[in-house]
Amino acid sequence: MRGTVRKITLPRRLVADLMHASIRVPFVSLTRPLHIRTLQEARAQAAQRPGWAAIFVKAFALVAKEEPVLRTLYVKWPMPAFYELPRSVAMVAIARIEDGQDCVLPQKVTAPDEMPLAEVDALIRHAKEAPIDEVPAFRKILRTTRLPLPLRRLFWAIGLNFGRQRANYFGSFGVTSVAAYGAGQLHAISPGPFVLSYGVEKPDQTIDVVLRWDHRVTDAAPMAKALNRLEQVLNGEIAAELRSNRQQSDPKPVRAVAT
Fold first, then answer.
1. Which of 26, 87, 152, 221 is the least crowded, having the fewest Cβ atoms under 10 Å away?
2. CATH of the structural domain 10-243, one choice from 2.160.10.10, 3.30.310.10, 3.30.559.10, 3.40.50.720
3. Which SUPFAM superfamilies match (predicted)?
4. Torsion on CA atoms 116, 122, 123, 124, rounded to nearest 10
5. Do residues 172 and 37 touch, judged by C-beta distance below 8 A?
């Protein structure tokens, strides 16, 4: 059958490179509904509601601050080893439309646990709305994607297998979701070591979360505990920050003075 040859766009080439880098990662996954009633109430009353991506990015980083294994990478050079990072680096999957085609690009958020939630949300929104050339993380990864295939493979190998470069280029965890397009569980893959995806809010005040991880780094029991702690952080620290921001934005009552 005669068809039409179409050029692979730069964002699709990036996804192809990403899948090639992910093919040998021994991922396992755990799915669990998280109860988020307290968080929902605090978010509903917030003056400016942050997106769910920002909420999960900061919440996971707060959990990783307590649990070093969530900041640990598996690297191969100069010899196979674990590389523990001093802080988390999130890579957020940003869905965009470029040249009339859907694409996904990674936005880097360094140490989101040390940032106000509003600032994390602003970084993600900027990546969704700004021109590609104005987003540093996009420029950096697409610059490499423009290289010929042999050079791309070399750069990816260096970026994936040296601990310091791994964090700079690929972060310590990823966050992705298709909740904006309806319900469904997304079991994404990446070079690792951790990928978190979330679904839509349900009437029973839960939200499904899928956590995938590199089995070379850790086992299921610590990840189950991490999801328990994530639920606590969402309803604890994150909800408290939303309430605090609301109180700061509320106008102070004017005290009447008798004359």
1. 221
2. 3.30.559.10
3. CoA-dependent acyltransferases
4. 110
5. no
CA distance 20 to 12: 12
Q: How confident is the model at residue 141 (pLDDT cuts 50, 70, 90)?
A: very high
Q: Considering all CA atoms of the chain, what is the largest pairwise distance in Å, rounded to the nearest integer?
A: 91
pLDDT at 232 over 50: yes
Position 201 confidence tier, pLDDT thresholds 50, 70, 90: very high
Q: What integer pLDDT is reported at residue 165 of this predicted model?
A: 84
Domain boundaries, the chain: 10-243
Examine the pLDDT at 257 and tell me if it is beyond 70.
Answer: no
